Amino acid sequence: MVEADYSRRSAHLRMSLYYVAFFSVYGIAIPLWPRWLEHYISVEYVGIVMGAAYWAKLIFVPMTSWIADVTGNRKSILISLALFVIAALILLPYMDGWFLYALIWGAAGAALSSAVPLSDGLTLRAQQTIGIDFGKARLWGSLSFIAFSLLVGAMADQYGIDTIYVAMLLTGAFLLFVSFLLPGIRTQPEEGKVPFFRPLALPNFPLFVVTVSLLLSTLAGLFGFCAFLWSNLCYTNAEITLFCVIGVVAEIGMFAVSGRLIGRFGATPMIAVAALGGMVRWLLLAIASSPIIIGLAQMLHALTFALLYMAFIAYIGKRVPPAISASAQGLYDSLAMGVFFGIFTIAAGWLHQQDGSYNFLFMSLLSAIGLVLALILWRQVRCYDRMQASR
Asked: What is the pLDDT of residue 57?
């Protein structure tokens, strides 16, 4: 392993600043970017343009993960991805027609989201080699997401829809600048190896990645259709935003304490806890109309996302060799946020048309399946650890 000489405080500040910058872009791209797009292309094509980024990830994530493991250098890739996003944003207003928008934003959106497994992998290496707290660095991203989505949304109402585009460009430039400040922690590549699919040969890894990907992709029902359901229950846009903020605040709290929880109980038990939280959360959202119950359900985002994701990171850090860790995270991201997320979004849309609650009942069922898989994984990991200890 090759490392640059960084203090724990310096590495923590650099990674925290990167998360602030990255999620300032994401905080605009997820809730607000479609509003800008619909002013330049027909509304019926906005979904195609946004969806193109999910499918393009099936190319970008494996490619960038493979390069990261072959070179051992995540920082240079993150700089290149930020530069690619800025170039696409500059080019986009000069395009005409939904197809070119889909082509350019599909690539740019995939490049943007491909930075997630790479930056998280870099933070994980900093945690293992220098001792920073992953969760405490990552929580700044969640705070940034809230702040920028609310700020830019308010500014767009005040100054016009093009404020969204200007904000995307400025935060993208900030992301590029901060990418140069990232700690240059590297891993030593394995010579003569093709790493991307090698994690699948690790003990219990296929079951692990399917379980975590299934559970995390149940968020597809929330991201795509919660606003429609709550709007039909006569909640205002401000109230719907508040429900979303409750979830992110709970996420931030979990990021702050997840390291101690996972250190005390282990990663695989926490995956099972997250699955149980998903069963309860989605069931509550399927039947709830009271703001109190919806708020309580949203607090379970601490389990269904933050605890689950931190358990995933902890498992990777303990059981995947550093030389193929980027590929392991890339496999998860391709499966969870690409294949599963795409399929479940389509299914959730069809169920929502039948009845708004069916979508969340389906996600609760998927969480129940995930709980069964998590319990099997927990048992198999314990058996494997006992077998290794007896040798």
From this structure: 84
Same-domain status, 207 and 160? no
**Contact indicator for 129, 1 with CB cutoff of 8 Å:** yes
The first and second tokens of residue 244, run together, are: 């979303």
Task: Check residues 383 and 338 and name the one with the higher pLDDT.
Answer: 383
Confidence band (pLDDT; 50, 70, 90) for 1? very low
Q: 170 and 300 in contact (C-beta within 8 Å)?
A: no
- The torsion angle over the Cα atoms of residues 301, 306, 308 and 313, rounded to 10 degrees, is 170
- Asked whether residue 95 carries a pLDDT value surpassing 80, the answer given is yes
| CA separation for the pair 290, 233 (Å, rounded) | 9
Query: Which residues, 6+ apart, have CB-to-CB distance to 10 below 8 Å?
Result: 183
* pTM confidence score: 0.82
Q: How far apart are CA 350 and CA 362, in angstroms?
A: 11
Instruction: Tell me: do 290 and 179 sit in the same domain.
Output: no
The contacts of residue 239 (CB under 8 Å, 6+ apart) are 230, 291
Closest by CA to 311, choosing from 276, 273, 270, is 270
Containing domain of residue 170, as a range?
Answer: 1-189
The CATH number linked to 141 is: 1.20.1250.20
